Amino acid sequence: MSHVSKEFRLTTQSLVCAASIVFSILGAPSALAQTYPNKPIRLVVPFVPGGGSDAAARILARGMTERFGQQVVVDNRGGANTIIGTELVAKSRPDGYTLLVCTGSLTINPSLYKLNYDTLEDLTPVTMYLRGVLLLVVHPSLPVHNVKQLVALAKAKPGELTFSSYGAGSPGHLAGELFKSMTGTNMLHIPFKGSAPSISEVLAGRISMTFGVLAPVWPHVKAGRLRPVAFATPERRPDHPDIPTIGETVTGFEAVGMNGICAPSGMPKEIIQKLHSVISDVMTNRELRTKLIDGGADIVERPLPPEEFGAFVRSEIAKWKKVVDGAGVKVN
To answer: CB–CB of 282/67 below 8 Å?
Structure first.
C-alpha cells in the first residue's frame, strides 16, 4: 500500500507541477500586456519628415506617450515608396516596441514590387485612424479650374503636363495613372520621397499638378498658392461642399488612402488590443481631433479594430491589383 501511495503522490505532484507550468504559460500574455510598455516605443514613419502622415503620427505619438507614460518616438525611414520602413518593422521582434504607420502604399506595393516580406503574413494590422483623402491641385498659372478643362488641356498637350507624387507606386501616383487611363490622357509622372518635396515642386511651378494628401496641401490652397480642382473621394466632403469630385466628371473614379498602425506578425493579441484601445482613446480626444481636422485630416468616426482593419487591408490589396494590372502601371 505504501508503494502505491508513494507512486500516487509522485503522479499527483507531477500533474500539479505540469498544471502550474501550463497556467504560467497561459497567463504570460496577460501579464505581458499588464506591464506593457515598460520602455520607449519606436513608431516608424516610412516617409521623410514634413508630410501629412508624419504630422499626424507625431500628434498620435504625443497622445500615446501621455497615456502610456512611456516615450513613443517617431522614427522617419523614408524611401522606396514606404518599403524601407515597412521591411524594417516586418522583420522586427513582435513585442510591441516597434510599430509602423501604414498607409495606402502598404496595399499597393504587393502589386508593383518584389518585396522581401509578405504584407499579409509578416505584418499585423492594429488599427486604422485616418482616411488618406487625395485632392487634385494645380499651380495657379495652369489655365485649369475643373476636371473637364484639365482633360481638354492634357489632350491638347499630350506628354507636356506633369504630376508629382510622394513616391512611385504611391496612392498619389496610382490616382494619376488611373486618371490617365480613364480619361485617355498622357501626363508625365514625377515621383519624390515624400509629400513635402512633391508639393514644393508644384508650388514652385516646376510641376503642373499633384494628387496630394489633403492635410499638407490644404494650407497652400487656403493661401491661394495652389488651386483645388477636385477630390478623389466618391462623394463631396461636407467640410468642402464647393469642391467637386473627380467622379462627377470621370464616372467611377475613386482613390482613397489610409493611415493606420501595423506591427510585426506574431505580436500577442493582448498587446494588439491594448494598442488599439489607447490609440482609440487618443484619436477620440476632442482637442486633438479639432487640431487634425483643421490641418485637413480626415479622421475615421472610430478607429477600426484589428479584425476590421485586416479585412480592409485585404480588400484594398485586391482592389489596387486590378488598378495596377488594368492601367499597366510599371515602376523602375
So the answer is: yes
Euclidean distance between CA atoms 187 and 158, whole angstroms: 7
Give span(s): CATH 3.40.190.10, the chain. Answer: 133-248
d(CA 224, CA 265): 45
Question: How far is Cα 54 from Cα 48, in angstroms, rounded to an integer?
Answer: 8
> Cα(59)–Cα(63) distance, rounded to whole angstroms?
6
Grid cell of 158 as nine digits: 499630350
Q: What is the pLDDT of residues 279-322, one digit of tens each?
A: 999 998 888 888 887 766 778 888 999 999 999 999 999 988 98
Residues 19 and 13: their CA atoms lie apart, in Å, by 10
How is domain 40-130+258-327 classified at the CATH fold level? D-Maltodextrin-Binding Protein; domain 2 (3.40.190)
For residue range 54-97, list pLDDT tens digits in order: 988 999 999 999 999 999 999 999 988 899 999 999 999 999 99
Q: Pick the more confident residue, 7 or 306.
A: 306
DSSP per-residue string spanning 152-203: HHHHHSTTT-EEEESSTTSHHHHHHHHHHHHHT---EEEE-SSHHHHHHHHH
The pLDDT value given to residue 27? 47
pTM value > 0.85: no
Task: Say if strands 123-138 and 162-165 run parallel, antiparallel, or are unpaired.
Answer: unpaired
Give the per-residue pLDDT at 52. 78
Class at the top of the CATH hierarchy for domain 133-248: alpha beta
Band (pLDDT 50/70/90 cuts) for residue 266 is very high
> What are the φ/ψ torsions at residue 223 (nearest 5 degrees)?
-85, -5
What distance in Å separates the CA atoms of residue 3 and residue 13, rounded to the nearest whole number? 15
Backbone angles phi, psi at 128, to 5 degrees: -115, 130
For residues 132 and 215, give the distance between their C-alpha atoms in angstroms, rounded to a whole number: 9
